[in-house]
Amino acid sequence: MPSPRFIFVIGGVMSGIGKGIASASTARILKSKGYKTTCVKIDPYLNVDAGTMNPIEHGEVFVTEDGMETDQDIGNYERFLDENILAENYMTSGSVYLSVIEKERALKYGGDCVQIVPHVPEEIIRRLNSAARKSKADFVLVEIGGTAGEYENILFLEAARMMRLKDPKNVIFMLISYFPIPTKIGEMKTKPTQHAVRALNSAGIQPDFIIARAEISLDEPRKKKLSIFCNVHPEDIISAPDIDNIYQVPLNFEKEKLGAKILRKFEMKAGGRDMKEWARMVRRALFSKKEVSIGIVGKYFGTGKFTLFDSYISVIEAIKHASWQFGRIPKISWLDAEVYEKTPEKMKEELGLLDGIIVPGGFGSRGIEGKIKAISFARKNKKPYLGLCYGMQLAAIEFARNVAGMKGANTTEVNARTKYPVIDLMSEQKEKVFSGKMGGTMRLGAYACRLKDKTIARRAYGTRTVYERHRHRYEFNNALQNILESKGLVTAGINPESGLVEIIELRDHPFFLGTQFHPEFKSRPLKPHPLFREFIRVAITKKK
Ligand code: GLN
């Protein structure tokens, strides 16, 4: 088997310019040329995984099929590649240091002095090779977090440099850089990128490609200038102007023949596939006229719209994928659950205008009474409702309180002494929580869910058993299952090994469904998730 080719993606000038999307798009292009492609994300921080970080500040915690809590970029890779990315393809400085130190403690270094260089880069290289082997990839895109010239990611650049030295034919570097157009000056500036390339050079790395993120495309004079100063051929400088929809990016890159240019560097041929289906999806997303309005009820204070968007990115993408399939543009509103606690009138007014309501995942007590009120509204007014994880748990509580007459029913996450613990800490979680073992210890990753006949879920999926991804510590309390079912709650999906309730539904309602898992993690632009698809379909039908 030929050895895999590595493409390192490194940022220049500043963060937040779409390095993840650029990596995912490049991967999509190589896949469309007939090559098995995978992506690896490197985060330079010391957290061992992304699970312990606040999503409002750092973006969504994405969960892989095999239960790793990762950065949201892994979600982008999965959506663009339409493939699962496994835990192996994610690393942080913390996880790398941890393995080096654990190996040292296990005498695995045979008496050597264990040093930052070469032992840390060697561990990084070992992991990259192992990820490549496991995914049997022809191409591995490796996105290194942060920007060139930073202190934090230098050991990862060092690893990349060492890999190129060892195998120059199989490693290339792509710099994703930013080109500002200062308003008072009115012209695009290349100087910051020239500095970024110099910073990268000082780490021993020369980029093969520069992806130029800017408001508009680079013109020829600027490409020429950049080429001379940065030592990159003008044709290897690829424009990446601002776009309306992230899924346009691979199509834009292909306008500049990025795929063929990369293949040429590796002396490889392009296969026969194309991106027609992808382009059709993008057209539907850009040019559909009709709308469907979906409200997401959560706790959102002190956050701008931007961070909100980032912390629920998979939910938003899942709504989009499903809506586009029906030729609709989703109009998503962010509804503050805390406001609903005080002003029920405002709630009725806002929710009344929607075609569908979602309560997404969450933790803690803030805003939950407002969410429960919104769920009550959806149930009584027959508004399509989709509850995701916490949104399912709160729907069970709402039903217990207001239909089954269990006054004060709650989750023990919020009230440990409730008379009706409808949602309770999973037994295997108790020891972990009490001993403070919090990182990476939730119920994580894919578990089987057996679907009951004649349920919304069974009809939507069209199969009997599905595998969905989890991230929670609390669960539906089976001690109360019979009594809640006798009052009309449908437990539509059950985990066959543990008996845990994975899906609840209501009858006599056009669409009322909650999942203990996170279906949003498995939605793909070309394959909308069945539950989101059904939710949006009913929302549209009801609208008529
Ligand atoms: N807080 C709830 C739990 O831990 C729900 C978690 C979630 O929504 N991801 O079970």
Automatic annotation (TrEMBL):
Residues that hold Mg(2+) according to the record: 73, 143
Pfam families per record: CTP_synth_N, GATase
Residues the entry annotates as binding L-glutamine: 362, 390-393, 413, 473
EC supergroup of this enzyme: ligase
Residues at which CTP binds: 15, 189-194, 225
Catalytic activity, reaction form: UTP + L-glutamine + ATP + H2O = CTP + L-glutamate + ADP + phosphate + 2 H(+); L-glutamine + H2O = L-glutamate + NH4(+); UTP + NH4(+) + ATP = CTP + ADP + phosphate + 2 H(+)
GO molecular function: ATP binding; CTP synthase activity; glutaminase activity; identical protein binding; metal ion binding
Binding site for UTP: 15, 189-194, 225
Entry coiled-coil feature ranges: none
Protein name: CTP synthase
